[in-house]
Structures are given as structure tokens and as C-alpha cells.
Amino acid sequence: MATRTDVGADADGYPAPSRGPLPTKDVGRLLLRCADRPGLVAAVSGFLAAAGANIVSLDQHATEPSGGTFMQRTIFHLPGLPAARDALERDFAEQVASRFDMDFRLSEAAKPKRVAIMASKEDHCLLDLLWRNRRGELDMTVSMVISNHADLADQVRPFGVPFIHVPATKETRAEAERRQLELLRGNVDLVVLARYMQVLTPDFLVNVGAPLINIHHSFLPAFIGAAPYRRAKERGVKLVGATAHYVTEELDDGPIIEQDVVRVDHRHTVEDLTRLGADVERVVLSRAVLWHCQDRIIRYGNQTVVF
Amino acid sequence: MATRTDVGADADGYPAPSRGPLPTKDVGRLLLRCADRPGLVAAVSGFLAAAGANIVSLDQHATEPSGGTFMQRTIFHLPGLPAARDALERDFAEQVASRFDMDFRLSEAAKPKRVAIMASKEDHCLLDLLWRNRRGELDMTVSMVISNHADLADQVRPFGVPFIHVPATKETRAEAERRQLELLRGNVDLVVLARYMQVLTPDFLVNVGAPLINIHHSFLPAFIGAAPYRRAKERGVKLVGATAHYVTEELDDGPIIEQDVVRVDHRHTVEDLTRLGADVERVVLSRAVLWHCQDRIIRYGNQTVVF
Amino acid sequence: MATRTDVGADADGYPAPSRGPLPTKDVGRLLLRCADRPGLVAAVSGFLAAAGANIVSLDQHATEPSGGTFMQRTIFHLPGLPAARDALERDFAEQVASRFDMDFRLSEAAKPKRVAIMASKEDHCLLDLLWRNRRGELDMTVSMVISNHADLADQVRPFGVPFIHVPATKETRAEAERRQLELLRGNVDLVVLARYMQVLTPDFLVNVGAPLINIHHSFLPAFIGAAPYRRAKERGVKLVGATAHYVTEELDDGPIIEQDVVRVDHRHTVEDLTRLGADVERVVLSRAVLWHCQDRIIRYGNQTVVF
Amino acid sequence: MATRTDVGADADGYPAPSRGPLPTKDVGRLLLRCADRPGLVAAVSGFLAAAGANIVSLDQHATEPSGGTFMQRTIFHLPGLPAARDALERDFAEQVASRFDMDFRLSEAAKPKRVAIMASKEDHCLLDLLWRNRRGELDMTVSMVISNHADLADQVRPFGVPFIHVPATKETRAEAERRQLELLRGNVDLVVLARYMQVLTPDFLVNVGAPLINIHHSFLPAFIGAAPYRRAKERGVKLVGATAHYVTEELDDGPIIEQDVVRVDHRHTVEDLTRLGADVERVVLSRAVLWHCQDRIIRYGNQTVVF
């Protein structure tokens, strides 16, 4: 008689926590966007076949049955990709992209994105990203954590990631952003705002040279401004949610990447709502970061397609 | 060899569709609300025990650890309740409610709520309520369907419910409301706005003499005004939802009863969003109506407690 | 002051209930499955481009990074498709499918699937399918409803669909199936078991000449056999679910198309679980039927890919 | 122009991460279970009122309308509870519990449960519990982590919790359990199996003197035995879930506390399913542990009531 499935020591089908990355050698990702017209899929797949690449996966989306925007994500396998990559990119630009007036991006799956995380005092989003990445779940390298407070330094250090304290208040914003830009510009492919509670200026967004992903709470109806969880409680909401989005100059209004909610009821206190909201935030943010790092997201207008 | 669980004809544990109502004979429901103070539960349960009633179920909620609002729903069984009811109500008022300055409501489970449904052209919420009620799921009697259009008459008739066409436009609102009030006042315990697309005036709300429940779509962020599904599509939302609430003079802003959402992605068209939104709307509205008819809801401030 | 968004009569962005079908003229759907190898996407898209077709949408999936099964769904627009269809199919078979040893299926979006629904006494799945189809949500024509009981005849008639009573018990199964096959064979593209509570024999499955979709309840853990909702209640489950699947000779064990669950707790009675389970069943079944009718599903092994 | 809601430094309504515990001084929790009969609520609330206690919250549940099992959880405030507690318990036993043949348990909210966590090599459940407890979310004191592997020692140490390595294999089970019992017996109020991959014997369960909570994956259908995620992938499941339950001698079959699921589709690899399953596991386990530590759970038969 046994109280657990007796399948031998640690052998229930779980991968070991330190499992290696998925096979990414010689795997390329081609993302593109252009005006829709006949022949796009054939042109791209023909180009890749001629180049000796095998298409592993292909997703495409057209915003309208005809005459809209066309987007495609193609994963391909090309032996010797690292050496062939620059020529492939140049050839694609000349032979396909210019012909269809395409925006495109070619990346190698074997090169994880370099990511900076900016945080303040809240630890839930930051630690979840660091922990998932240590497990090998996120396909990224965390280059640094930048915080306007020193509080989380001790929690970040065990992950072997540099923690950089850049004090920032409304008054010292200019100086803080100058310092942040020195750290970030050219060094990272993505900046994640993991509950970073300071305003970033349009100048910063222009100059940082990498996309930014932010996470914030979501309610129905919305509660803009201070103390949203308290006001959601006063309004008796039955759902608490979170939205991850790219940062644009529009206040919390950039292209949505992912959203989720959790049910609450009258027995939940403001503290409970905050705790449950934090649970949703860290899950939603980690999904958004993973999808970005896997080159799954194409932006158009104020929207995203997540393949 | 068989392709379905062979359990005999129609015997897989499903109740027959025409199953009778749950036992409600001699079952009473006591809802109350007052300022919180020690001794409330003891006073109410003592009163009921002295009256010969057995408490079947009791839920209570206090908005604060102390000094807040106290609400309680008590389901009890009292042999001979129909005859004893008026005396019980009077005694409770004198012996308990006046002492604690309580608002309270006593109802008999055996008396289903009399409900009017108001609709326009959309059928999904209306038909779902009628169908659920025919199955015996909603503990209500539908007294009438009032619509400002004649379109749905043929769909309502098979349910054996009166369909009353009261044309209403912005211009004829006063006359339409006069006619609606004649139909409703004193005749119903609840009015359900099942996608009724006309404004109701504050006067109507005051004079109708029954609470109103409304359903509307919900998005994160909110899209106020015309064409919300199209705008939600343009914004690339990942969730589409619905909110059922009591109607107050505040525009779509009364106490929330229930909310739910469904996931969507970039492949969903505006028509898909609308269809999925309708699915959520009918489920959320039917839950809200069921809970109201079971006397599960207590309002306070701009919130609800749903026991 | 108004209590509803005052956007004019019925003008809040909802489509009219009787909206026409999505544009499907000249739209074809090509589904294919074969062993994965380089050049598949290029070959198919090249063929379509040469035939003058514009790819509207393309989804593909490979079960392994290499060496697995490859599946693809391509939606294309080809002016004059109805006339060109047979030649297109023949050319594709000769020029592409034979070369790659493909299974494929070509269908026209403008030709809705002909569907038979089999039911017993439970109405929730049957009526939901009929109602959704009346709204134009399901891209199908319901050719007939076959039931082993007469109970639901009155509820089906208003939808203008033939209701055929074929009594069936364990003893009369052979005769009943003979009669059912006469009705179905060659006349329908899909059979939906909408809580049809009789066993179907392997002979029936072989001879009916159309795929069958079934819906059944799902629990964690599973409760096989009689009275599953009562036993789920006794086990204190916190989730109640439903699974829609293709019917195979394996008892309730065919390829899963869709699953969903709803939360329950100790306050829910067996009747509540049954009601909530029915809600999930009708939603899950309608999704599976819609996806099948849109040619979104490819089967392989005992699984499905739903594009 | 600003890209985040500018509400001042870190002032958006989030509590500081190091917020103190909820007020628990002089708060008691009384859980009871007995055969249902009239007068129970009155007897208990009358006793508490007479003792000078104010009922903060009361939940009760009867398994049948009459003649079933009655369960109640009462939260009360009694000034001077720590000193009065023993007398209160004795008086309740004599004056109420003995009269109704009640099982009951009286606890003080100010005394967090002493908890041992047992783990193996997987870190997700263990670290999530430690992290939530550091944030003050779980109302418990983690007395120790026991693991049959040394792998997680470095990850546990920063939380200031003793990590005790007790090697255990099928062969050394008796010796391992002897050592574990020395550590646990009398020292903890709860044992959490956070992906502990060793069998525990019935003797251990009897002698450990504290309830055990376990977490395991859940699928529809169930996949018993080795490699469940691989087999779920082969079956094409659309949901992956987890179940937290009390441990009994029945293999993975004790009273369910909480369940949840996450949607998956054909694009998810076995590794993705495992990762998403781990996400559900840690959330479901943490909810179960929280509810246990808040004395929200009453067991009866093979079920739980979670108030």
C-alpha cells in the first residue's frame, strides 16, 4: 500500500529542473509585415527552399480578407545558419522584401535576447522572471536589474544578475534617465518594466533603442489613478486582472500582448485583491516576455499578433 | 464493443429535463443588513429557534472587522410557514429588527419571483432565460416579455409567455414608459433588461417598484459608446467579457452582480468577438437572475454581496 | 440623465441577429497531412499561386522538429472556384499530393456542411446547436434531428428542421441502426451526438460514411459509469467539465477536439453540478461543431490539430 | 507627457512588500462538525455571546436539507483571548460540544501554523511557498524543509529556513521515515508535500501527527503512472491541471482541496505542458496551504468544505 504513485525515485515524467534549452542550433526566425497581395507565402517559402532551408513552422495572418496588412512568422532550419545568416538576410532583402515593400526581421533561435529588468520595491514580477529564467523557461539572458530603490538587491544577487541602483524621483528624472540610457543603450534587446513605478519620458523611449514591455493591473470598469485595488473593492468587482503591453508614448495604452483575470468575491479584502492581482501580473508578464523572446509577436497599428 | 457508456436507456445520472423543483415547502429566506455589533447572529438564530424554525443555511458578511456593515442570509425550515409567515415577520420586526435598526426581507422559497423581461432585437439573452426557466433552473415565473420591436414574438410564443410589443424610440419614450409602467407596476418582483436597447428614465426607475438587472459587455480597457466590439478588435484585446448589474441612475454603473470573460486572439473577427461576447452575456445574465431569484444578493453602497 | 448608453435605437455595435454569412464566395479550403520533409509549404503555395489563387490564411503544424507528421490548412481565394474546383483537385492530386504522398481534402467555404443531430431526451445541446445555427453562427445545414424518444419533437419543429423518431433500445438496436443508416448514409457530412444516450455499434460507425462528434462530461478524477455527477459530488470535486471528441470504436476515447471546465464548490448540489455541466457541454460541443464545419480540424493518431 | 500613471513614487495603491500581518490579536477560530439538528447555530452563537465574544464571520454548511452533516466555521473577537482560551475551550466542550456530539477545534489567528515542506528536486512548488510566506501571504511559519536530495539547499537557504537532507529511496524508506518522524512529530501542525517524489507508508501517516497536503497533476482523462505529460500530449488534451488534496492511505485519492486548469493546444510541446502544469501546481498548492493555515477547511467523508 502506498500513498503516492510509486514510480521510482523522481521518475514521474517531470523534466529535471536544470534541463537544457530546446534544440535551437541552425534554427532561424523570419518575421515580416507588408501590405497583403497574392503570392507572398509562395515568394517567401520559395526563397527559403531555394536557400536550402526547411520550414519548421509557419504562421501568417491577414487583417482583412483582402487589401489589409499581411504578417508572417516562419521558423526554418538551415544547416550552417550562423555563417550564412548575413548573406541570407541581404538576399532576402534584395530578392523578396524590396519587391513586396516588406518590413522584416531575421533572428537566430540560438541567440537568446539580452534583457534588462527595471523594478522598484515590488518583488513578485521581478523574482518570477528571474526564477523562470534560471529554470530555462524564458529563452533570455538577463543582463541587469535596474531599480530606483535598493530594497531588492539581496533578493536578486542569488540569481547571479547585476543589480544596479539608480535612484529616481520626479525631481531627479533627467539625471536618472541619463544614467539608465548609459547602461541600456546598445546593451539590451528588451527592457521589461516589472512594476517599475517611475515615469519614463518620451525621450527615454526614443533613445533606449529597444522595445519595452510593461505590466499593469486591469479592472472592469477601469480605475485610473491612485489606489486602484481599494476602489475596485469599493465597487465590488468580481474579476481582477492584468495587462502586459508594449510601452508607447500613450499612457498605459500601448499594444496589448496578453491579459488574464482571476475571480474574486465580497469576502476578499483589499489585501487579498492585491495578492491575487500580483499572481495574475507575474503570470501575464512572464508570458509576454517569453513570447517576445521567442519572436512570436508582430506589432501593427496599436495591436499585436501573437503567433 | 460499444462506443458509448452502455448504462441503459438515458440512465447516466442526468436528471430528466422536466424534473420538479427542489424541495421548497415551508422554507423561508431571511435577508438582513445593519450596522455591525456584537450579538447579531445570536439574536437572529435565537429568534428563529424560539419560533420553531431550523436553520438550513446561514451566510453572513461584515464589511470591516468591526464597525462596518453586517449582512446575513438565513435559510430556515418552519413547518406551516405559509400560515405563520405574517406573524413571524411582525415578530421579527418587533423583537429583533427594531432593536438592531435592521433592514430585512423575509421571503418564501416556494413562491417564485414574478419576472418581466425587456428585450429589443437580440435574442440570445432573452431565449436563454426562457429556456433555462422551462428547464426549471431559474426559480422564477416569467410574467411577460416586453419589447420595443416585434421581431422576437415568434420565438417567445412557444414558451407560453405573453409577448407585448411597446414601440419605443427617443421621441416616444414618455408614452412608452407610461405603457410599460401600467404593465409592470405591482405585477412583477424583478425586471430583467435582456439587451433592451432603450434608455430608461430616472422616473421609470423610481416608479416601476421592482429592481432591474441589466447586462452589458465589458472590455479591458473599456470602450464607451458606439461599436465597442469593433473598437475592441482595433485595440487587440485578448479578453472579451460581460457584466450583470443592478440598474441605478448612474449610467451602466450600478452594483455589479457577476462578471466573466472569454479569451480571444488576433484571428477572431469582429463578428467572432460579438458571438463570443453574446455567449458570455447570456451566461452572466442567467447567473445574476438565478441568484436574485434565490434571494442570494444583498446590496450595500454601490456593491453587492452574493451569498 | 440616462440609465443606458444612449446611442440611438439598437445601435450599439451589435450586428443584427439575422446578419448574412461571412463572405465565402470563391473561397476554398485545402487541408493536407503527410510525412514532414523540406519544400512542402513552397510546393503547395507555389501550386496555388500558379493556379491564380490568393492565399487568405495558412496554418501548418509539424509534430516534430523534423521527421514527424506535417499538417496544413490553407484558405485561398480563387475567382470562379465552383467551376474550377474539380480540375483544381485533380491537378493538386497529380502535381503535389502524389509527389509527397499526401492525404488532402479540398472544400468550398460556400457549401455548408450537411449535419444530422442525434439526441435522446436532454435538450440543452440540441437546442443550442439549432439556435446558434439559426443565428448563422455555425456554417452548417441541419438536415435532420434523429431521436430515440419523441419528447423533443415540439421543441425542434419551430426551427424548421425534420424531427425523426427512431425508437432504440438495447434490444432493438440492430433495427434502429438499419433505419438510421438509411436516413444518414450519403445524406450528411457530419453526425453530432448531442447527448444521444444509446450505444452505436462499430458496424454503424463504419457504414455511416461521415465523422461523428460526441460530447460527454469530464471530471478530475474521472467517474466512469452510472451517476457521474452524484459521484463527483461525493468526491468533492472543484471543477466540472466537458469533452467533445470524434467517435471511434474506443469507448469515449476518440480524438479530443475541445474541453472546458467550470468551478464548483461544496454549496453546489448534484442538480447544480448537472446544470453547470450542461452549460459547459453545450458550449464545448458547439465550438467543436463550428470548428469541424469550418474545416479547422485535422486528425492524426488519436489526436486533433485545431487550426 | 508621461508613459506611466504619474502618481508619485511607488504610490499606486500597492501595499509595501513588507506589510505587516492582518490584525489577528484576540481573534479566535472555531471549527465544528456534527450531525445536523435544529438549534446548532443558536447554541454556538449564544455561547460565544455569553462569553463576551463578537462574531466576526460565520460560515456553515449542511450536507443535506435535513439529517445530514453540519459544519461551521466561526471567527470571533474576544478581548484577552490568549489568557481565556483554555477555559473557553473547556466550557465549549462541556456546554455545547458534548450536548450535540460535536467534533470541534479552537485556534488562535495570532498563532501561525508550524509547517514542514517536503520536496525532492523540483523547485517550483517549494520556492513559491517560501516566497509567498516571506511576503506575509500564507499565515504560517516554515519550520523546516526536508528533501531526499541536496539539490535545492542553496535555493532554500536565502529564505532563512532549515534545509534538512534525508536521503530516501525505496530501499532505505524505513530508515528515512524514522528520521523524518523524529524531525516532524510534535514539531509541526502541517506537512506539505511540494512535489516530494517518494512514497510515504501508512505507518508514517499515522505517526506523523499532522495532516499532509499533496499536489499532483490532473488531466482529463487521467494518466496514471509514468510520464503523464508525454501521454497527455499524445492524447491531445486541451486542458492541463493540478489537484491539491489531503493525503490519506488511498493512492492520490484523498479529499480534494483545490483544482485548477490551464488551456493548451497542439502547438505546446511536452516541455510546454510540463511548464504550464508547474504553473498551475504552484498556484493550486499555495491556495490549499493558505486555506488550511487560515482554518478554512473542514473534512468529512472523502470531501472537504472550504469556507
Automatic annotation (TrEMBL), chains A, B, C, D:
EC number: 3.5.1.10
ACT domain mapped to chain residues: 29-117
Pathway: Purine metabolism; IMP biosynthesis via de novo pathway; formate from 10-formyl-5,6,7,8-tetrahydrofolate: step 1/1
Region (Disordered): 1-21
Gene3D superfamilies assigned to the protein according to its UniProt record, in alphabetical order: 3.30.70.260, Formyl transferase, N-terminal domain
EC class name: hydrolase
Entries under HAMAP family matching the protein: PurU
Protein name, UniProt field: Formyltetrahydrofolate deformylase
Organism name: Mycolicibacterium agri (Mycobacterium agri)
Gene: purU
